[in-house]
Amino acid sequence: MQSHDSRLANGARRNNKSTSPTRDYREKITYLKFLISNAEAGIVIGKGGCTVSDFQSQSETLIQLSRNYEFFPGTSDRIVMVSGPINCVLKAVELILEKFLNETYGEGEEGEDEPSSKLALVVPHSCCGGIIGKGGSNIKSFKESSQAGIKISSQNDLYIGLSDRLVTVVGTISEQMRAVDLILQKLTENPYYTQSMNVPLSYAGYNVANSNGVGAKMFTNSYQNKYQHNKGPGVLQEGNSVTIGVADEYIGLVVGRGGKNLREISQISGALIKISNRDDFISGTTDRKVTITGSQRAIRVAEDMINRKVDIAFEQY
């Protein structure tokens, strides 16, 4: 199997054009969610949490896992969330994938072909358009550049009220990491993606009672103090109230003629929805603040309905 260094070297040769973001961009705080089996969760956590603590220390990231039997809807897989600067997140993901590879196949021999595996990323539905690109241009470019297979689950497969889709990346670790790098770059350009960092790992109403995940008990205090206030631009989240951003030009689609759409969303979801005044934007953007208040399930349903209204306009371009 290839070493970590040889994987990086091969990636550099395959992508001789410079597509790397600037250093400042690489230091942006972001996150990545993906699915793992219960058995893999045990590997990530390690005895007494030693493995996940080691990975957090090596990568300088925050690693959270949903609890036992808190699965992504429609699967028997748990959710992992890695958060921190982009480069650190990528390092943590690679450490985890390498751990799985070594546990499954052993260390392997230098030069031995590396086996392929599947990685399922959890991505907000509203952010998938950026990965796809106009006419599929972005996802095609990502596939060609990384040599990995990339497939996005159909929005028709979404559970009612579920606002996340799965982006499946298939390939060797080096191919997967290149694809994840490109996908994460694109996702982090979207202000809504970073706002979603604070959404709970569990899917209330689909699984057992809500939790912030076992990883919450494993973080070092120094990391929490360093990153706990990085909630993305203009995100407000208190109790059962969440504020998201909607581009000013799309607010009319959310409200509807005479407020018809807004009333419909509120009635179906059971959530209270409030939209900021015309000159009240999320800091650094021209996105209006849409505050959703209610149960977690009500918030998810309302958010999903709002995203779908905006997606209709987005797909027309």
TrEMBL record:
GO molecular function, one term: RNA binding
SMART domains tied to this protein: KH
InterPro entries: KH_dom, KH_dom_type_1, KH_dom_type_1_sf
Coiled coil (UniProt feature): none
Record-annotated K Homology domain positions: 28-101, 115-188, 238-311
Pfam families: KH_1
Positions of the UniProt region annotated as Disordered: 1-22
Keywords: Repeat, RNA-binding
Official protein name in the record: Far upstream element-binding protein
Lineage: Eukaryota, Viridiplantae, Streptophyta, Embryophyta, Tracheophyta
